[in-house]
């Protein structure tokens, strides 16, 4: 069986270094917001090219904390609107709701699956305060266009970089440094994954940084003095050194993913299979490699019978989820079409040549 993503094998490569890191933290006797978190925050800010990084508990919290900080700073208030893509992983939309703001869904482009910058302006109202582009599947959104619109209407741009660690835009800047603030997830399956939940926020905005530093820690800068009604959302001291270790290989892992994707794009040739469109090679780090087919159930069974594991990202669009009953009657035909046919095939930093060849052969025979 070719696994969709073999996390045991991926993390097994680091067993010796990980054990040393565990040992260090254990010996230090310091388990919350210590030297390891601080070290990773510096390294990750450096990697993304931003002034600041704040380690938090997970990717959902990262996005919530950014929005909560804008509320504390008086830039947003309860009831304001945030534009989000209609075909994202639901966390991007949940973050907006959890912060007391209103998610306004925008359709993606059918070929890149990314927010369509041409329809953003039509969704802007006097209540719109931010655009939340999601670099879905690892590919960066059209950030020049999005930032231009944001400037025109005085909106904040909050990147959801949960799937795009390390992706490089046409201006040479990385995911996390392409808007006003960015949320990252280090969920185990992400391109940079911890051994549990973890996340981070990057920004160049000093006020936002300071506010989030307090908000992630009960709204407190100084122990037992609470400036804001904050939350407890801190990157674990035990996860931070593991992320530092894996960060050193992130560029190498991403270029391996890009090579595999290039091979798939060149060699998968089947009129029944629609391949994803790439805007710029370096701007896609292939968190997942998706294809679209008409008979997805049949396709998935066929691959499974041939020993190839697949995953659907994502089977149900957010506006059709029971959690968002209020959006159920809205029409997002492009999103619905994507969700109907999309399916991800194995691609990882450790997939072998033989596995790649077998996958291509199987897809071409479908
Ligand atoms: C994974 C993910 C998140 C949430 O991250 P968690 O760490 O699981 O909370 C948010 N947005 C997108 C696009 C994601 O893929």
Write the layout of secondary structure elements.
Layout: H1 7-12, H2 15-28, H3 35-48, E1 52-56, H4 59-72, E2 81-85, H5 91-98, E3 102-106, H6 117-120, E4 128-131, H7 143-153, E5 156-160, E6 181-185, E7 199-203, H8 206-215, E8 220-222, E9 225-226, H9 240-247, H10 250-267, E10 289-292, H11 296-305, H12 333-341, E11 342-345, H13 353-365
Parallel strand pairs: 2-3, 2-4, 4-5, 5-6
Antiparallel strand pairs: 1-7, 6-7, 8-9, 10-11
The structure holds pyridoxal-5'-phosphate (PLP).
Descriptive account of the structure:
- With 366 residues, the protein is of the alpha/beta class.
- It is 38% helix and 13% strand.
- The protein has 13 helices and eleven strands.
- The protein has a seven-stranded mixed sheet, with helices on both faces. Strands 8-9 form a two-stranded antiparallel sheet.
- Strand 4, helix 7 and strand 5 form a beta-alpha-beta unit.
- Helix 3 packs parallel to helix 9, helix 4 runs parallel beside helix 5 and helix 4 crosses helix 8.
- It is globular.
- Pyridoxal-5'-phosphate binds next to helix 4 and helix 5.
Radius of gyration: 20 Å
Q: Which overall shape is indicated by the principal axes computed on the Cα atoms? A: globular
Number of strands: 11
What is the percent of helical residues? 25-40%
Structural class label? alpha/beta
Order of helices and strands: HHHEHEHEHEHEEEHEEHHEHHEH
Which ligands occur here? pyridoxal-5'-phosphate
Distance between the termini: 18 Å
How many H/I helices?
A: 13
Instruction: Enumerate the spans where pLDDT stays under 50 for 5 or more consecutive residues.
Output: none
Main β-sheet description: 7 strands, mixed
In what order do the strands lie side by side in the largest sheet? 1-7-6-5-4-2-3
**Strand percentage:** 5-15%
Task: Write down the overall mean pLDDT.
Answer: 98
């Amino acid at each position: 069986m070719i696994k969709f993503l073999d996390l045991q094998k991926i993390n097994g490569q680091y067993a010796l270094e990980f054990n040393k890191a565990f040992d260090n933290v254990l010996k230090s006797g310091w388990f919350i917001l210590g030297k390891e978190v601080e070290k990773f925050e510096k390294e990750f800010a450096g990697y993304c090219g931003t002034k600041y990084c704040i380690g938090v508990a997970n990717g959902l919290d990262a996005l919530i904390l950014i929005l909560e900080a804008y509320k504390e700073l008086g830039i947003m208030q309860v009831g304001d609107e945030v534009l989000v893509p209609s075909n994202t992983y639901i966390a991007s939309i949940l973050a907006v709701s959890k912060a007391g703001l209103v998610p306004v869904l925008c359709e993606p482009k059918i070929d890149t699956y990314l927010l369509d910058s041409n329809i953003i302006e039509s969704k802007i109202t006097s209540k719109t305060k931010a655009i939340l582009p999601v670099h879905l599947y690892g590919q960066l959104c059209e950030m020049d266009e999005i930032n231009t619109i944001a400037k025109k209407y005085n909106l904040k741009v909050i990147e959801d970089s949960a799937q795009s660690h390390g992706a490089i835009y046409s201006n040479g800047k990385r995911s996390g440094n392409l808007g006003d603030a960015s949320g990252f997830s280090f969920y185990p399956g992400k391109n940079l994954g911890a051994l549990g939940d973890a996340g981070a926020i990057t920004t160049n905005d000093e006020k936002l940084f300071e506010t989030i530093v307090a908000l992630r820690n009960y709204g407190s800068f100084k122990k037992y003095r609470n400036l804001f009604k904050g939350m407890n959302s801190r990157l674990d001291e035990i996860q931070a050194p593991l992320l530092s270790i894996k960060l050193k290989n992130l560029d190498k892992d991403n270029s391996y993913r890009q090579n595999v994707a290039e091979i798939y794009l060149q060699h998968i040739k089947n009129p029944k299979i629609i391949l994803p469109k790439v805007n710029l090679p370096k701007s896609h780090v292939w968190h997942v490699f998706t294809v679209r087919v008409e008979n997805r159930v049949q396709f998935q069974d066929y691959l499974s019978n041939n020993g190839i594991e697949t995953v659907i990202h994502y089977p149900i669009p957010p506006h059709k989820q029971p959690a968002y009953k209020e959006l159920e009657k809205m029409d997002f035909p492009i999103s619905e079409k994507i969700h109907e046919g999309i399916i991800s095939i194995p691609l990882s930093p450790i997939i072998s040549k033989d596995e790649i060849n077998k996958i291509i052969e199987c897809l071409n025979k479908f």
